[in-house]
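Hi support team,

I'm opening this ticket because the web form for multi-chain structure prediction keeps timing out on my end. I have pasted the exact lines I submitted so you can reproduce it. The total is 727 residues across two entries, so I didn't expect it to be a heavy job. Is there a limit I'm missing, or should I split the entries? Thanks in advance, R.K.
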Amino acid sequence: MSSAHATSTYVPKSRLAKWFESRLPLVGLVHSSFVAFPVPRNLNYFWTFGAILIAFLGIQIITGVWLAMHYDPSAGNAFESVEHIMRDVNYGWLLRYAHANGASMFFVAVYVHIFRNLYYGSYKAPREVLYLLGVIIYLLMMATAFLGYTLPWGQMSFWGATVITNILAAIPVVGDTIQSLLWGGYSVGNPTINRFFSLHFLLPWMIAGVVVLHVWALHVTGQNNPAGIPIKSSKDAVPFTPYATIKDVFAVVVFMILFAWFIFYQPNYLGHADNYVPANPSVTPAHIVPEWYFLPFYAILRAVPDKLGGVILMFGAVLILAFAPWLDTSRVRSCNYRPVYRVFFWVFLVNAIILGWLGAKPPEGGYVLASRICTVYYFAHFLIVMPLVGLFETPDRLPGSILETVTGPGKQVSGSGMPAGAAAEPAKRA
Amino acid sequence: MRIARLFAATLLAASLGAGSALAEDGHGTNPPREKWSFAGMFGRFDQAQLQRGFQVYKEVCASCHSMRLVAFRNLAEPGGPGFTEGQVKALAETYSVKELDDSGAEKERPARPADRFPSPFPNDKAAAAANGGKAPPDFSVLAKARTYERGFPLFVFDALPFTGYSEQGVDYIHALLTGYEEAPKGFTMPDSGYYNKYYPGHVIAMPPPLSDGQLTYPKNDKGEPVVPETADQYSRDVSAFMAWAAEPHMMARKALGLRVILFLFVLAGLLFYVKKQVWKKVGGEVHGLQPELHKTY
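Hello R.K., no limit was hit. The queue was backed up. Here is the completed structure from your submission:
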């Protein structure tokens, strides 16, 4: 964290602190990353979702570890042990509903985070690595959520696991091996739930590891902002603490109200009734539907008549995100100054929501046709719109500085609270 | 921006139209929405109704349907039917459960409050064999395991405060229990089974379980039953009982939720004020989502 560390103004006072800091500069690292770190002063509430996501990673890990103390990962007992948590464990219903709805809230927050990134062009240079780490976190989150949803061993758990492991078998050459490895046998059964539980416990720690890298990369390049222009002087920035800290804490608490609403008043709204029917390999549910956050990708999978083609497009729909920094040819980051691309951004967002709605519908008649049109548009956005609009669009005039977007041009404000010179764009100095 | 809004509005309108047009060709009839004492943010179970519902379960349903996950002691726990511990102990003793004695031989003993309800059949296979090939579903979480599709845009309102709706399963069960009728003309009935308006596919193996006057309900001072002894009332009561069996901590959940959400609102208010004070030092914060759009340079 060399460049972030360079902004540190931490000076150890006591002898013990000096002794420790000269051996491991941990306090200085935290101070430079979360106290003195310069934050663009024009950040809006979309920039609080990083803090919200970290809060949810913590909530999921804490509730998850607790649930694991009472859960029995075996095909014969899993369903009943979940009900044991709901009925007999003190506040077990709270733990389980918090964990199940926490996963959904995690995805609500990550989708806001991703679309904020796409709107304000945060994926562009110099933040490509920061962005790629984010895509990896998103992939790990999807894997973790899928594995977790199989654990209650209800009908949707079982058949969801069956559908997903079957589509992996479509991968040429290694598909069968991957499938047998995941199953631990010749179908989804007791060995499957054992290893899914183990992997579900493992992946969140991998997410936590990549989150550390994600935050590290963020502190090297500094944050993007709604204007999409770099910090040019100390007046453009404020120190992370107290300005961003208090705003983040406030936003987290507001988001917790939504979370609490679902836990206490709509705990099963985002789930499926079928998952309260114990898994039964001989009865297939009428409609096998994944959790809401996978629905757009499920719609893409089913839009393709060929199994392998569907699998390629479904994974491609996530992986194509990783190419955004190089597909977008515009040098202007923020959509606020991109009058043409801005329109396409909103169409893309609506298209993704419609895909989600189609993913929940049975694959028949007009739904299939609509899914195909939306799938083509989804990919066209990345492969055609992103490169071409950047080439032909005339962006609006950018403001001279971040300060100007806050106060209007030529006006003065009181001090930023940043030491002079401390806030010049860190990437430039590094 | 104006073009973007127009685009979004058009697409949304198109999807709305498609949604409502397609929702109508769904399968089966949706159950009517009933009023339940336990619905909504302040919903509470009606103790007397749960006790009557338990009576219906015990005297009618329990001959075929198990309730494996519910223990006798649950009947005396807070937020439930509110039987006394003595009543539960006496009730449990009327059942017998099997256990192994010290010599390893299987023996029967009277049930204790800590025991779960014994099932009417020794296992699922026996239950299936005695019921035409399919085991009658277990009652423990059945009220949460059944639902019906609400369609767009109703499902959006179902999630919101005041218009919230999470009793689809209970409504379905009540509708099913009272939904037996003559098969309409042109509907071919198979050799076995009964026509039910609300059952998916309409042919259900369960014979109509409830009829008017089938059970004797508790009487008031004048010797009249407190509620009508009709199939409709029996069905309501047992549906409410099943809602409790599926979610025995519902009242504790809703009560805690109110306190948590009120606390969060107060905390958020205080934090908002602190944040305003903090940001004052640097001339205030940016407001609006895209302030630059509303400024000219």
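A quick check on our side: The first strand of chain A starts at residue 38 and ends at 40. Let us know if the file doesn't open in your viewer.
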